Amino acid sequence: MRGADPRVVLGLHRSCHERRLLTGALDLGVTALDTSTNYLGFRSHQILAQTAGDLLPKFTVSTKVGYFPGPGGAEHSLDPVRLHAAVEQAARDLGKEPDLVFLHNPEHSLREASSDGQEVLAEACAALDDATSKGLCAAWGIASWDPSPLVRLIGPTVPRPATLMVRAGLLVGVRTLDAADVLIKAWDLDPSEVWGMSPFGGGTSDSVWAKIDPRIFLGDSPQRSCVQAAFIVAYHLPRVGTMAVGTDEPAHLGELVDALAGAVEERTVQEYRSLLRDRSHDQRF
To answer: How far is CA 147 from CA 28, 152, 234, 265, in A?
Structure first.
C-alpha cells in the first residue's frame, strides 16, 4: 500500500459508488471521498453507508448541501434552516459526521436573489458555521462551479470558509480563474485550503484531449501521459493543494496518483494564463 496522499480526493459525482472502487482507492493511499446530498439521485449518503459503512471511518468524507428534491427534480436553496437541516441529515445518513461540508454552488440562488446578495450569502455561510460549531461537521467550505458572482459579495459580514473548491485545469476560462484568485486572496486561503475539481472538464475521453498535448507544461520532467500531464497542470490553474477527481476505475485513479511525482514549469503556466487573458480581451472588441 502506498502512503496516503492528501492531494487527491475521490469524487463521486458520476460514480456508481461501488465498494471495489473504495477499496481500490484505499490501496492507492487515497483516503478522502467527496460527495453531495444530491448525487446518485439524492441517495449517495445512504448508498455509501449501505455498501461501505465499514470503510467510511478509513476516509475523510466531504459532502455538499444546497440542492434539495423538488417537483421538477432538484431545486437550489440558500435558506439557512434548510441548509442546517441538510447537514444534520447528512450525518444521519452517512452514519458519521462529515469531515467537511461545502455550500454547493451558492451562485445558483444568488443570481436570482431578490434581496441583498451579500446578506443571503452571509446567512447561508453562518448556517454552516453554526453547524460546525455544534459538531455536526468538522469544517465547512464553499464549492462553486462559477465563482465570479461571489467576488462582489465578499465582505466582513460573510464568514470565512475553511476550504474553497473551484474548477481547475486547462479547460477553465480566464474569468473563472481570475475570480478564484480574488476569492483566495480575499479569504487569505493557503493553497492547502483550496481544492480543484473537474480537472478534465468532463472526461479524459473528450475529443479536446486528442487535439492538445499538455506535456509541454512539464519541461524536463519525467515522461508522463497526456492524461497525467493535464492532471498535474490542473493543480496550477488556479493554484490548489487538493484535487477532487471522479472515476469508477481504480486503475485510472492509480494513473493519476502516479502523476503527482511530475513537476510543472510555472513560467509556462503563467504564459498560458496571459494568452487566455489576451484572447478574452480580444473577444470583447
So the answer is: 32, 10, 17, 26
